Amino acid sequence: MFNLGEYQTLEVTSIKSSGFYLSVIGSTIDYDILLPGTHAPEGLGLGDRLEVFIYRDTKDRLMATTKKPALTLGRLALLEVMQVDENGAFLAWGLEKDLFLPFAEQTEPVKKGEKVLVRLYIDKSQRLAATTRVQRDLKTHPPYKEGEAHDATVLKTHPDIGLFVAVEDLYEGLVLKQELLKTYTPGERLVLYVARSNPAGQLQMSFKKTIPLQIQEDTQMILDHLKDHAGTMSLTDKSSPDDIRRVFNLSKKAFKRALGKLYREGAIEIHETAITLKDRV
Questions:
Q1: Domain 211-280 CATH assignment equals 1.10.260.40
Q2: For the structural domain made of 76-131, what CATH number should be given?
Q3: Tens digit of pLDDT for each residue in 92-148?
Q4: Nearest-CA neighbor of 221 among 266, 255, 252, 175?
Q5: What does pTM read for this prediction?
C-alpha cells in the first residue's frame, strides 16, 4: 500500500526508459509506481531502497519523487497562491503540479500572490488538496505532559486572549496574551512548552519552561550579565518592566523571582540603585 501525501521507503523493482519503478518493501502484490529518472539520485539501481514522497501527477497517476514538498498529509504550511480560476486556487508547494485549494475549503477568497496557511488532506476523489480550515481537524486531550517542549504552528492572534497555535500541527493550543513579546505571523514555527491542559483538553502553551527550570535559566543569565559587567548592574527590583525586558527579555515578575533566588543563595547583594555580585561588596 502506498501512503499518498506522505514519505515512504520503497524498493526499486524494475528500471525502464521512463525511470525507476518502486514497490512496497516485502509486498506480495504486483503493483509499483514510477520515480522519474530526473527525480532519482545518481547511481540508483535494482534492489536499492530510498525514501520518496507519494503524490498524483497531472494525469492523476500515483507517482514518487525525491523532492521535498512544503507539507505532508495532515500538516500545515504557509503557501503562495500562484493562480485562481473558476475551480479554486493553486498553491506552490515544491512539486511540478501545484496544490489545489477548492473554493469550498477557503474560509475567505484568496488572491494570486498572497500567502495562506493551509493543511494538506485527501479529498473524496483520493486526490491531495489544501484547506484553509486548519482548526477544523485539530484535536483535544493530547498525550503530552507539563513541561514538555513541542513544535507549534501559529494560527492567529486574538488581542484579548492570546496566540492560537496548532501543537505538532495536531492539537489545539493557546499562549496567553501576557506572554506575547512581538507580533507573530500565521504559519510561523515556534518551540513552546506545555504549561497545562484545561478540563476541555485544550493545551495552554508557554514560551517558558516549567518554573523551576525557567528560574534556573534566568538566574544563570543574570549571573552571566553581572560577570560580563564587572560584577554590577544598575537594574534592580525597582526598575521599570520595559528596562528589564530590554536587557533580559524577562517580565518584571520573572526578574524579581530570579533575584530572590540569587539573594537567598548569597550570590548577590541588592542595593538601592544597583545589584552586585556578593564577592564585590
A1: no
A2: 2.40.50.140
A3: 999 989 999 999 999 999 999 999 999 999 999 999 999 999 988 899 999 998 888
A4: 255
A5: 0.70
pLDDT of 68: 96
| Angstrom distance (rounded) from CA 236 to CA 259 | 9
Cell of 17: 526508459
Topology at the third CATH level for domain 149-206: OB fold (Dihydrolipoamide Acetyltransferase, E2P) (2.40.50)
What is the pLDDT at residue 280? Answer: 47
Q: What is the DSSP string of 122-171?
A: E-TTS-EEEES-TTTT-BSS-S--TT-EEEEEEEEEETTTEEEEEETTTE
Closest by CA position to 116, among listed 124, 125, 107: 107
Assess whether the region 7-65 and the region 76-131 belong to the same CATH fold.
yes
Residue 110 confidence (pLDDT): 95
CATH number of 7-65: 2.40.50.140
| Domain extent listing, the chain | 7-65, 76-131, 149-206, 211-280
CA-CA distances (angstroms) from residue 66 to 2, 61, 218, 263, 275? 15, 16, 44, 57, 57
